[in-house]
Amino acid sequence: MSSEPQLFFTDVNERQALFLRRTVIFGGATLAGVGLLVGRLAQLQLFQTQQYATLSTRNQFNFRMVPPPRGLIKDRHGVTIAGNRPSFRVLVVRDETKDLDQTLDLLGRLLPDTLERRRTIIREVNAAPRFSPVPIKSDLTWEEFSKVNLHAADLPGVMADMNEARYYPYGGAYAHVVGYVAKVSDNDVKAMRERGEEIPSILYNPGYRIGRQGVEKALDEPLRGEAGGNRVEVDVRGRVVAEDTAGSKPAVQGSEVVLTLDNDVQQRALEVFGEEAGSIVVMDVRNGDILAMVSSPSFDPNLFVSGVPTRIYRALADYERRPLTDKALAGTFAPGSTFKPVVGLAAMKRGLDPSRRIVCNGSFYLGRRFACLGRHGALDLRGAIKASCNVYFMTLATEMGPDAIAETSRDMGFGQTFDIGISGQKAGLVPDREWKRRTYSGEQKTWFPGETPSYGIGQGALTVNALQLAVYTSRIANGRKAVKPRLIKSIGGVEQTSSAFEDLPFEPQMLQVLRDGMEAVTAAGGTGFRNSQLGLGTVKMAGKTGTAQARNYGAGSRKGAGRPWAEKDHNLFVAYAPTDNPRYAVSVIVQHGGLGGGTAGAPRAREVMKVALLKDPEMRARIEQAGFEAPEDAGAREAEARGEPIDSPVIDAAAPPPLVEPGQ
Amino acid sequence: MTSSALTRPGERERLSVKLAQLDWRVIGLLTFLAGVGTLMLYSLGKLSWEPWAAKHLIRYGFLLVALICMAMIHPKWWFRSAYPLYGVLLIMVALVDFTPLGYTAGGAKNWLNLGVIRIQPAEFMKIGLVLALARWYHSHSAQEARWSWKLLIPAGMIGVPFLLVAAQPDLGSAMIIGLTGAAMMVIAGLSWRVIGAAVAAAVAFIPPFVLFVMHDYQRNRVLNFLNPEMDPSGTGYNIIQSKIAVGSGGLLGKGFGLGSQSQLEFLPERHTDFIFSTVGEEFGFIGSFTVLVCYAILILIALRISNLSHSHFGRIAAAGMIAFFALFVLINGAMVMGLAPVVGVPMPLLSYGGSSMMTVMIGFGLIMSVHVHRYAELSKGNGLI
């Protein structure tokens, strides 16, 4: 190119032409760029819009789970024994707090006890999902609740709300049978997964509680209800902007469960125990309805709802009277003398004439001497039950052998569990030859004749629980049917009926003999006379006392007075009433209690039975009609003559020696 | 009208004549786009003039007056001030980089603290560069513009501020400076062979640059652009939420003030860099398409204006401003729709923010000045002033 002059006119034109060409290309490139953007717009907004609309909705709306109110549990008369109560609580949302530590510091000033649990709180808050509120304290007082609300502006991420908490208005009375609810643990989830159950997402809701024992556990699913949901519009920080009522689903309360229990009977049954340990079961002998089932000592199930403090839990777990164990179902004991009617029944089934007399001279010999605690002389079956004569029943047992006793035991309800809808029953043990063969090896495989006499008086390997004793008593009292217990009356209004009872494989008159014997026990001169007087006029109670050895005694008193608690004998009592037309059966086991005979079990059975009878409208009418005065009773007069008030409470170490020799 | 070249001397210098020469199509489109921006900011402010919409509109009003005033200025003054302005701005950029007067905000040290006022020299550097390059090309031949050793001078004029701004590190501004400069060199007539070689070199150079030179946050932006689902709640969040906003708008949009992504703040930076997503969400394909078409028409009209200028300075300066404007539109549009990495480039006239609007309006002031004075001849322009 020429260099002089620098810019020719042609060059100016060339430069302009070049620029024009380039601007055309540039314009084209811009249009291409805008075209690309329009294409992308079309792709996003016209072809993929559905997909992005879904994502947008997912951003915009959030489903807040609404926990369902748990189903109520009521007694047979409609008294709520497990309900829900409003509870104020404080929650923390991690991502809304500016600084968790600082927030907890401030909160600690309002609620000092959160400081103690600070580490736990921080752990729980950090474990929760980003925007999910974590309850850090429940059951606030109204003052605490208002304080937190007042300072809400200074406490970002902290909110106070109201939810429903499980509430057991009768405290310990139902701690074992109804159980309690507690926080869902990882183990619960794992167990459900192993059972192949679908895990409802409501379980992960921090306020949710799962049934842990008794009815609450067994019927957890129907009680649970159906979680509702609130469709809410949230902003990017998860704060609720608006509620979408059309998209919300209300929570459905869990089914109402009605039990066969009677609140008054149940409460009285716990009351009569005082400090003593043991269990009471009350049953309707006609249909098997359990009116009361109590294990003592008990505990307050309300403690477990919000998380029981470790200190209290340890105290409960370590107490030697074992409040956490359900003794009515899982406590198995030797029945002692309460078992003697079974032996008599087994013998009658094998042809024993109940009027046959066996002479008791205080001892029974089979390889060694087995003591009877009296010289009863010649007794028939009725008299032997009344006097609780060891020699008589040892004689019958040795004549029959263990297998005959075992068979009748099972017919009467021992050695088995019943389907009452809750778990935790122990079957106990009804020993026989087969059992020994199965369980032992070597020489121990055979049944030794020396084991049979103890079997005859309800000792040895034999163990039973309070429910079985109640079933057994009901069957004697019923006289015809093999009554089975029922605890769950209805679930969600649907009556829970058990199949029709089978007939007992005994002649009715055999059971009549047993009833006669048991009536004699509570009549003047019987082992349970003094503490079995109901004072309800003609309505009287029949029963059988029992004392079970808690350990092997060396030389020394078997009465247990002055011994450490854990070494004393167990005291048992089974009874039914009224004697003329049996309605209710009761079984009482007092662990390491009383002084033998009818000292600990009988008075408790009497008190509970009184409530059961007075609550029965038919019984009440009859009693009111006949008056509360006891009819003429020679025995009672005799007792009064010796200065013993019939109704005196007997759980008293200084009480005069019992009427009969204890040890039965 | 005095649109002919054959008018009486001095006639074209009369203010009323000049005012009549303003291109009202351009002003109309600018006002329409600024109006859309105001509308969106009103919607984003929860249907309120506060905190953005009123300021945006007032700012536009002032700048429109400024634009008209600038349009009245004869290009010779732009021409004469080109090199001094470039020099002063370069010194200011260097001051930000190398002296304590530099002020850090938002991860990059790109503010100059002059005691009474704080400015971002990089914003104005773009205008200074356009003017300086236009002046350089004005005094050089087509042959020199195609390919000669003298091209080292414009290359250096682009390269020095590019490196200084990139070091701040304000990658968005540096990229705009580099690309605007490159676009001007291409429009001025750079040989296609050189362009091809430069593109090839750039393609070879980018991956190592991304891997070894970029800061972590910059690299993350690039990697997230390539795969936004990699970290949906972290750095990929912006792109994902923006695509959701645009995509969920559909054909007709969710309606004014009803964009859930924008209103509930799922969309980040929704009043500045991502405002076009809000347009897409609330007004749908129809709305965002209309806005894009307006930008395209504006660019084409401006290109036409540049070609009508009698001076090469006017042509190149106007083209530079257009290139600069078009780059903003295309890069921002690509970014909000997930076609480009997230770089801090606003959508001109829509995005809230004073300096970006000021730069754009100054640019159009220059274009308008070129249009009004399209018959003006300029001296050969040797020397600095």
UniProtKB/TrEMBL annotation, chain A:
<keyword id="KW-0573">Peptidoglycan synthesis</keyword>
<dbReference type="Pfam" id="PF03717">
    <property type="entry name" value="PBP_dimer"/>
</dbReference>
<keyword id="KW-0378">Hydrolase</keyword>
<feature type="compositionally biased region" description="Basic and acidic residues">
    <location>
        <begin position="634"/>
        <end position="645"/>
    </location>
</feature>
<dbReference type="InterPro" id="IPR036138">
    <property type="entry name" value="PBP_dimer_sf"/>
</dbReference>
<keyword id="KW-0133">Cell shape</keyword>
<dbReference type="InterPro" id="IPR017790">
    <property type="entry name" value="Penicillin-binding_protein_2"/>
</dbReference>
<feature type="compositionally biased region" description="Pro residues">
    <location>
        <begin position="655"/>
        <end position="664"/>
    </location>
</feature>
<keyword id="KW-0121">Carboxypeptidase</keyword>
<feature type="domain" description="Penicillin-binding protein transpeptidase">
    <location>
        <begin position="278"/>
        <end position="610"/>
    </location>
</feature>
<keyword id="KW-0997">Cell inner membrane</keyword>
<dbReference type="InterPro" id="IPR050515">
    <property type="entry name" value="Beta-lactam/transpept"/>
</dbReference>
<dbReference type="InterPro" id="IPR012338">
    <property type="entry name" value="Beta-lactam/transpept-like"/>
</dbReference>
<keyword id="KW-0645">Protease</keyword>
<dbReference type="InterPro" id="IPR005311">
    <property type="entry name" value="PBP_dimer"/>
</dbReference>
<protein>
    <submittedName>
        <fullName>Penicillin-binding protein 2</fullName>
    </submittedName>
</protein>
<feature type="domain" description="Penicillin-binding protein dimerisation">
    <location>
        <begin position="66"/>
        <end position="243"/>
    </location>
</feature>
<keyword id="KW-1133">Transmembrane helix</keyword>
<keyword id="KW-0812">Transmembrane</keyword>
<keyword id="KW-0961">Cell wall biogenesis/degradation</keyword>
<keyword id="KW-1003">Cell membrane</keyword>
<dbReference type="InterPro" id="IPR001460">
    <property type="entry name" value="PCN-bd_Tpept"/>
</dbReference>
UniProtKB/TrEMBL annotation, chain B:
<dbReference type="Pfam" id="PF01098">
    <property type="entry name" value="FTSW_RODA_SPOVE"/>
</dbReference>
<dbReference type="InterPro" id="IPR011923">
    <property type="entry name" value="RodA/MrdB"/>
</dbReference>
<keyword id="KW-0133">Cell shape</keyword>
<feature type="transmembrane region" description="Helical">
    <location>
        <begin position="173"/>
        <end position="190"/>
    </location>
</feature>
<comment type="pathway">
    <text>Cell wall biogenesis; peptidoglycan biosynthesis.</text>
</comment>
<keyword id="KW-0997">Cell inner membrane</keyword>
<comment type="similarity">
    <text>Belongs to the SEDS family. MrdB/RodA subfamily.</text>
</comment>
<feature type="transmembrane region" description="Helical">
    <location>
        <begin position="317"/>
        <end position="343"/>
    </location>
</feature>
<dbReference type="InterPro" id="IPR001182">
    <property type="entry name" value="FtsW/RodA"/>
</dbReference>
<keyword id="KW-0573">Peptidoglycan synthesis</keyword>
<feature type="transmembrane region" description="Helical">
    <location>
        <begin position="197"/>
        <end position="215"/>
    </location>
</feature>
<dbReference type="InterPro" id="IPR018365">
    <property type="entry name" value="Cell_cycle_FtsW-rel_CS"/>
</dbReference>
<feature type="transmembrane region" description="Helical">
    <location>
        <begin position="149"/>
        <end position="167"/>
    </location>
</feature>
<protein>
    <recommendedName>
        <fullName>Peptidoglycan glycosyltransferase MrdB</fullName>
        <ecNumber>2.4.99.28</ecNumber>
    </recommendedName>
</protein>
<keyword id="KW-0812">Transmembrane</keyword>
<feature type="transmembrane region" description="Helical">
    <location>
        <begin position="283"/>
        <end position="305"/>
    </location>
</feature>
<keyword id="KW-0808">Transferase</keyword>
<feature type="transmembrane region" description="Helical">
    <location>
        <begin position="349"/>
        <end position="370"/>
    </location>
</feature>
<keyword id="KW-0961">Cell wall biogenesis/degradation</keyword>
<keyword id="KW-1003">Cell membrane</keyword>
<keyword id="KW-0472">Membrane</keyword>
<keyword id="KW-0328">Glycosyltransferase</keyword>
